[in-house]
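2024-03-11 09:14:02 INFO receiving multi-entity request
2024-03-11 09:14:02 INFO entity count = two
2024-03-11 09:14:03 INFO echoing inputs for audit
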Amino acid sequence: MSDDKGERLVGIVLVSHSAQVAASVAELARGLAGGATAVPVAPAGGTEGGELGTSAELIAAAAASVDRGAGVAVLTDLGSAVLTVKALLAEGDELPDNTRLVDAPFVEGAVAAVVTAAAGADLAAVEAAASEAYTYRKV
Amino acid sequence: MLDAAFFRRWMTATAASVDREAERLTALDSPIGDADHGSNLQRGFHAVTAELEKEDPQTPGAVLTLAGRHLISTVGGASGPLYGTLLRRTGKALGDAGEVSEAEFAQALRAGVDAVMTLGGAAPGDKTMIDSLVPAVDALSDGFTAARAAAEEGALATTPLQARKGRASYLGERSIGHQDPGATSSALLIAALTEAAGE
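2024-03-11 09:21:47 INFO inference complete, emitting structure
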C-alpha cells in the first residue's frame, strides 16, 4: 500500500534488566538519531514490581505498543532478557507478527536501529544495521 | 496411567518443595549467581498453583502448558523462560490426551529438555539444570524413584564443574566448587514426581 509509505516504521523494543537502563537507552538512541520522534521505541526494563529482572508482560506490552505493521525489532541486554524474548517468540502468539530478536550490542545496536528505522528502512535493514554495530571496534 | 490430577499434584508438590528449599536455593545462588533463584521460583510456582486452581485444566498437556506459560510470565529471571519452556514443551508433546502412560510422559519430557537445551544453548557438563534433567530423563524408564536419584546425583556432580552458561560463567574457574542452583532446583522438580505418584 504505497499511500502508507513512510508511515509504517519498524518498531523497536529495548529490553533490559533495569527499567532505568531501558528508558535511558531509548532516550539516548532517539537523541543521537536527531530526535527521531516518529520512530516507535518502547523500553521494557526490569520486573513489573520495579526490581531488576525481566518481565514477559512488559515485553509483550511494549512490542504491541510499537507495532505499526512493519515489524518489531527487539534488542536485549543479557541472560533472562534474551531467554524471555526467545521463549515468547517460541510461544507463537504473545508478540506481534513479524517480531524479531535482533542479535546486537544493546546501546550501539539501539542507536543504529533507531537511526535506520527513522529512515523508513524495513525490518531486515534495521536488524542488519543493529547487528553491524558489533563490528565497530573501539581500540 | 497418569491423568491431569497427577500433573496437578506434581506442580503442587514442586511448589511446596521450592518453598521448603527456597533459602538453600538462594544460598547456592549467592556465590555464583545473583541470589534470587529461590525467591524467583517461589513466585513462579505460587502463580502456577493459583492459576491451576482458577483455570482447572482437564488434561495432562493442558496442566503443563498452563504451568509453563505462567512461569515464563511471572519468574523475572532466567529460570522463568527455562522452566517455562521445559513444562510448556512437555505439555505440548503430550497433546490433548486425557491420560498418558509413563513412557509417553518420558518421551514428552525429553522433548521439553531438548527445547531447554536449544533455548539456553547449554549441553551436559556446562553446570546447568541440564546436568540434572538429562540423567533424570534417561532414568525415567526405570520409574520416578530412579529418575529422582539420577537427578539428585546429577545436581551433586555439578560441584566440580566450571560453569559455561549463564551468569556463573563470568566467574570462570571460581565457579568450581559450588553446586549449581539450577541443577538443584531441577532435582526438586523431578523429586516431586515421586510425591505426586505417592512413591
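2024-03-11 09:21:48 INFO post-check: The mean pLDDT of chain B is 95.
2024-03-11 09:21:48 INFO post-check: Helices of chain B lie at 4-32, 37-55, 60-74, 79-94, 102-120, 130-139, 144-156, 181-197.
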